[in-house]
Structure formats: C-alpha cells, structure tokens
Design goal:
Elements (H helix, E strand, L loop, with lengths): L8 H11 L8 E3 L2 H9 L4 E3 L7 H11 L5 E4 L9 H11 L7 E7 L12 E4 L5 E5 L17 E3 L3 E4 H8 L5 H6 L3 H6 L4 E5 L10 H15 L7
Parallel strand pairs: 1-2, 4-9
Antiparallel strand pairs: 3-8, 4-7, 4-8, 5-6, 5-7
C-alpha cells in the first residue's frame, strides 16, 4: 500500500469519516486481509466480507445485516483520500429528514468537456431535487447552443441509504439498463426508489495510480501549510 503523506489511503478516508463526527460507527468493509490488518493497525474497525460481492452496495448489505441497529448507512469510496468531512456532515443531516426508502447522493456542476467522458457519470434531476436518470453518455442532448442558465451535473460516488432502502435493494435483481450502463444506481432508480441529490463543491479525486497518489499528496501538503484560521 503506497503511503500518501505518511498515511495509507484508507486511513485518510477513515479519518475523514471520523472527523465529520456524524457517524455512530465507522467500519471498513473489505475482502482483503491486508486492508483489515492496515485498518486495525491504525486503531480503526474493519470487517471481512465475502469475496463474491459484485458491487460496493452488496458489500454494504452484508455489513448492514451484521450491524442492523441504525436508521441510515453511508457507503464511502476507499480510494478518495480527500473526502470532505463537511460534505459528510451535510449529507447526514439531510438524510435524517428524507422519507423512508430514500437514497441520497452528491452531485457537482459539470463542465462541457465532462459530457463526452464516459468515466464521468452525468445525472439529470427534477425540480424537487431527485435524480431522473444517470448515464455515461452526454445527457441531456444539446440541440443548438445551450442556455447560459443550463446547469449540468456530474455524479459523485458517495451514497447515504435509509435502512428501509437497503432492505428493498436486497430484494432487487439487476436491471437490463443498469447492466448496459454499468451503473448500479439505475437498478434502484428504475425499481422506484427515490434518489435525492445534494449539490456540493467537493470534487471527488480517486486514486488508482502512483501518479494520482503523488498528486493527492501534493494537495494534502499544500493544505497542511495553510494556517488553521484560513482553512
């Protein structure tokens, strides 16, 4: 595990969740014993899960079954060491007032060049703050010059689930459109679960390569050089 500014990537994510002071419990769910050892080494809590889970949500469902005492659950990506504790606080407060069966996920304003990138998931929302559709394709279709008032959103892969939503998801089979887009949230949406969106300025930066890890390390080091009263 390549360290980032002296700590493992999973420790950065774990510490962000703890720093938010919003969760009754923070658990790293993994099927990799090395990650369990790493988490336990810095004093965190980890849970070994099945190696057969096709998605992170399937892994979360196993954790939920073993820890069924909460009204809501959040699924953070373990490869985002810059996760913002303030965003987590905002989402926890928001999901508390959403109706049963709800899911909450953040979005960020998209740039024109984001639309043609299939690795950036776009989302269309309604006037009530709910997602209508997610796609890797450039949606909505731009016929003519777009209005200067048009707001386009890209999706950030962080989810909050009401317990009742997770119990519904557990009974769902994969949806054909979900399989076409390779986007599991389409299964929930097309089975009728409301997915509410939370607009944020947080820019998700996942780390998959050594070069990305070095870039994130530079960001962390630059932040640490700023006096606390200016952050």
């Amino acid at each position: 595990m390549f360290p980032i500014a002296g700590r493992s990537m999973i420790e950065w994510v774990y510490d962000s969740a703890v720093e938010s002071q919003s969760f009754s419990e923070v658990i790293v769910a993994t099927d990799d014993k090395r990650i369990v050892d790493e988490v336990q080494g810095f004093g965190g809590k980890a849970q070994m899960t099945s190696t057969l889970h096709p998605t992170g949500t399937d892994r979360l469902l196993e954790v939920m079954e073993l820890n069924p005492d909460y009204d809501a659950y959040f699924n953070l990506q373990g490869d985002e060491p810059l996760m913002d504790p303030q965003l987590l606080r905002e989402m926890v407060r928001k999901i508390e007032v959403l109706p049963e069966g709800s899911i909450l996920t953040p979005v960020h304003s998209a740039k024109k060049e984001d639309l043609k990138n299939p690795n950036i998931v776009k989302v269309i929302t309604d006037l009530n703050g709910k997602a209508c559709y997610f796609s890797r394709a450039p949606i909505p279709y731009q016929r003519g010059e777009p209005s200067t008032e048009t707001v386009l959103f890209k999706h950030i892969g962080l989810y909050g689930f009401k317990l009742s939503a997770l119990r519904s998801i557990k009974k769902m089979s994969p949806h054909p459109v979900e399989q076409m887009e390779r986007l599991e949230q389409l299964r929930w949406l097309l089975n009728g679960l409301p997915i509410f969106i939370h607009e944020t300025n947080y820019q998700a930066i996942g780390v998959d390569t050594h070069e990305q890890a070095m870039a994130v390390e530079k960001i962390i080091q630059s932040k640490s050089s700023i006096p606390n009263d200016e952050q």
